[in-house]
Amino acid sequence: MNRVTLTIDHKEVTVDEGTTILAAAKKVHVNIPTLCYHPDQSIKANCRICLVQVGEDKLVTACSTKVQEGMEVITNSKFVRETQRGVLELILANHDQDCLKCVRNGHCELQDLCERFNISNNSLDENEVQAHPMDQCNPSIVRDYSKCIKCNRCVEVCSQIQNVNILARANRGTDYEILPRFNKNLHETECVYCGQCIHVCPVGAIYEKSAIDNVLDAIEDQERHVIVQIAPAVRVSIGEEFGLAPGEITTGKIVASLKRLGFNKVFDTNFTADLTILEEGNELIHRIKNNKTLPMITSCSPGWINYMEGFEPDLLEHLSTCKSPQQMFGALSKTYYAEKIDLHPSKIYTVSIMPCTAKKYEASRAEMNSYGYVDVDSVLTTRELGRLIKSAGIDFKNIEEEQFDDPFGITTGAGAIFGATGGVMEAALRTVYEVLTEEELKNIEFEDVRGLEGIKKAEVDIKGTKVKVAVAHGLKNASILIDEIKKGKSEYAFIEIMACPGGCIGGGGQPITSSEDIRQKRIDAIYRVDKNMPYRKSHINPAIKKLYDEYLKEPLGEKSHHLLHTTYKARF
Questions:
Q1: Residue 504 designated active-site
Q2: What residue ranges define each of the domains in the chain, with the CATH number in brackets?
Q3: Is 367 among the catalytic positions?
Q4: Residue 352 catalytic?
Q5: Counts of helices then strands in the chain (DSSP H, E)
Q6: Over the stretch 528-549, which tens digit does the pLDDT of each residue have?
Q7: Active-site position among 158, 300, 322, 500
Q8: Which residues pair with 468 in a beta bridge?
Q9: Which of 31, 163, 201, 480 could bridge across to 476 with cysteines, CB 3.0–4.6 Å?
């Protein structure tokens, strides 16, 4: 490839032909301001905040303009600074500036730019921001139109990554807006509540619907026994909310913080991830042996379930009937656990800490109840937990670590890897192989299903029988595997699908600072958790064995079927 030499702020730099000015500037440590630009998305060049000077008086967008031999770029002249500041003030003139009430206060790209340009008061006359009712009609996501800066990031992630296409550009000129199709509220569309739009939004125009107040009220209620479960992906990501490096494992700190907050018991969702493998693995074996519907597809990701119910209802029979680990835990908390501590289910308040906004919707589904009691009462995202810990004045970095409580505290590495794409598949294969062959699996590392490739395929030899499996993350990748099923060309027995890029470690409720590099660091940490566990196969978890001996009796049995399995139906 040809190389191009240019100067940026009088500093010579040589880069590949076709490089943008923005990328070239990073080579010489020049930080050009951006808003619509996102490293994981296409170039849009519509916010104009990245304007730089080329030559005497020409302004170009750094994100979209390619370098040329001998080009002289100035990023910090008075001309550039005043133009950028003017662009920023125009954006602010149409933006609700009540920052103290905004969920993104302190974590807002627009706010960061105001600090950079030393803007505390807009020099333009403040326009009355166009009035829009906030969209709060669903359990997962809030849309605040008054905060939208029309960067189009949410539109791209919804269409290009998630293949859902419910957000679109509407109107022209000063009436230009980003809205759900036909100006509906999200709950009236096929929105899957994955929350990927939240991740790419630079401001507070889209965010999770908070359950913090409900949880605090429950903790304050002396008549309630409040318990909490922690999803596997949370332990390798929440540290980022407190300035720790991505992928730092903070399990003991989370447990200690939750106990300090006043939860009566702190449990591990990894326990019911192990339980899911027993139920789902045996369901797969049952389907194979009895010539039932294949491929069977995992049902752990509620965003994925929403996608199937909204877009592919004719293929619902391919979904495993298992509830997700969150909901299995909730079901056991109001039955098995309630009996163990001799407390009426109505007195137990069950909270989930999840990396996922769609989990809020899942917990609200009418069928998610056990003998008449809601399985999970409230769901907090990783971000919400971060805010809750900060508000309580807890020194998360330095708090002394504590352990999970019994009976849902003994878990395996197989349960932990549920947090990464390919993890459910690998955990299932570790168990299915040994159940079918009655032999010990010597190498339990299934490398072929790991990593951030969009679709991963593997073939497993089970006593001479070749079983083909596939893994997809991100709904656009999932739709490719679904098309194969619809055309009768799918060769797989088992498929794992996670709605979010990277799986749960990239969930819509995770810290906003998400990129492919950060997702990989979280995944690497998940597998370190797995390697360090004394048990690494779900079916050898002694606490799971005890649960079946004392209560469930057997996988796919009458009680487990009632508590741990469910049905799905078309959403519209």
A1: yes
A2: 3-92 (3.10.20.740), 132-208 (3.30.70.20), 212-564 (3.40.50.1780)
A3: yes
A4: no
A5: 19, 19
A6: 999 999 999 999 999 999 999 9
A7: 300
A8: 459
A9: 163
